[in-house]
Design goal:
Rossmann fold
Length: 388
């Protein structure tokens, strides 16, 4: 189902709410790892090329490793990892981790694409896609287009939303302590208080927080905070109920809808094994009421046999922001005349300050693209394409 971000979601960079979604029930004999392998196997056997988007992070490494494991066991062609390497963006360099994983898996076929300004938020590719599709969520959506083009007439496997599935359970620290995976820490008392609090209190408590989005007008900020507070407060306390909740998020549906549009452009299919309904159901069942513990505990349980230990236990993440915020974006932000956006929702002066900060906030980038698009087609698409 095609989903579009609302003007408030694009202006804040924070989609919220839930979508209708059916939940698949599986028996206790279905393991999460087995279900993941079952989700990957058909794509390896299909007639076109099977590629994986491979950044070197834990999620993409896990998908690649499991796919290689299944391919060798079943006598199927090995998947081909596709990696984008960002020249001039040191904080996005993952090459040591990438090489560690590829060497561990013994792969010979590896597509590496060096990019410079090509992936700028307002570079030639991004602006072409903005003209075709309008402003999308997330604003680095054009990154996916490069990977999908490489997998043309085949399938691209991704580790999409591994961060959410494995690393965003709000009560994971309590589970880790209860299972003696780590010692209690003072911050766990705050988490425990929120866990025990009534839903209404959690909603109220979130609404008291200050959102770091200074470019939003007060009315827009209040509307956003109400929506986000309801989402945060609605999160179930039990892991086996939280996973179905996770699968219903609008933010997830928006990202998948964007990838589907780009895949159709490229004549490619996109598959996201971590979001396979059978895998999610098995993951929920196997974790039970409390869940698996922290992200590393989940990775250790599921992937320690196919990935190097250093990768499984890795906690640092690279930042891709420098790979997207390049000369085209900087030049537009510096020369923006304040027009093209809804000033009832956005304060142009505060927005310009957010764009020209040393590290521009990701939440302000859809507005950058919307302002550019409004100037590119005066009097037209800005309203129809989702910013106003």
């Amino acid at each position: 189902m095609a989903v579009r971000a609302t003007p408030l979601e694009l202006a804040s960079g924070k989609p919220f709410g839930e979508m209708p979604s059916a939940w698949l029930e599986v028996g206790p004999d279905v393991s999460a790892r087995g279900a993941l392998e079952d989700a990957i196997r058909p794509w390896l056997a299909q007639p076109g090329p099977c590629c994986t988007g491979f950044s070197g992070g834990r999620d993409s490494s896990a998908i690649l490793a499991v796919a290689v494991h299944v391919a060798r066991r079943e006598g199927l062609p090995a998947p081909v990892p596709i990696t984008l390497r960002y020249r001039g963006a040191a904080d996005a360099d993952e090459s040591p981790w990438q090489e560690l994983v590829v060497r561990h898996l013994g792969l010979d076929d590896w597509v590496r694409i060096d990019v410079d300004d090509e992936l700028d938020y307002l570079g030639p590719l991004a602006t072409r896609l903005l003209r075709r599709h309008g402003v999308q969520w997330p604003p680095y959506f054009h990154y996916e287009h490069v990977l999908l083009e490489q997998a043309a007439r085949g399938v691209l496997l991704s580790g999409h939303d591994g961060d959410g599935v494995f690393g965003s359970f709000p009560w994971a620290s309590l589970t880790a302590v209860r299972r003696r995976q780590r010692r209690p820490q003072p911050a766990d008392l705050v988490t425990l208080a929120r866990f025990a609090a009534p839903t209404a209190f959690r909603r109220w408590e979130f609404r008291q927080r200050r959102l770091p989005l200074p470019w939003l007008r007060p009315e827009a900020r209040v509307a956003l905070q109400v929506g986000l507070a309801s989402e945060v407060a609605s999160q179930p306390r039990r892991w086996d109920r939280w996973v179905p909740w996770l699968a219903r998020r609008r933010s997830l549906a928006l990202g998948l809808s964007t990838i589907d549009r780009l895949a159709q452009d490229c004549g490619t299919r996109a598959a996201h094994p971590f979001l396979d309904p059978r895998f999610l159901a098995a993951l929920a069942n196997q974790g039970g009421r409390m869940g698996w513990g922290g992200r590393t505990d989940v990775m250790q349980a599921l992937f320690s046999d196919v990935l190097p230990t250093d990768v499984v236990r890795r906690t640092a993440k690279s930042s891709l922001g420098g790979g997207f915020w390049r000369e085209g974006s900087r030049a537009f932000a510096a020369g923006w005349d304040g027009r093209g956006l809804d000033e009832a929702m956005v304060d142009p002066r505060a927005l310009r300050a957010a764009w020209t900060a040393l590290r521009p906030k990701i939440g302000a980038i859809a507005l950058l693209q919307g302002a550019w698009l409004a100037g590119d087609s005066p009097g037209a698409g800005s309203t129809e394409r989702g910013i106003r």
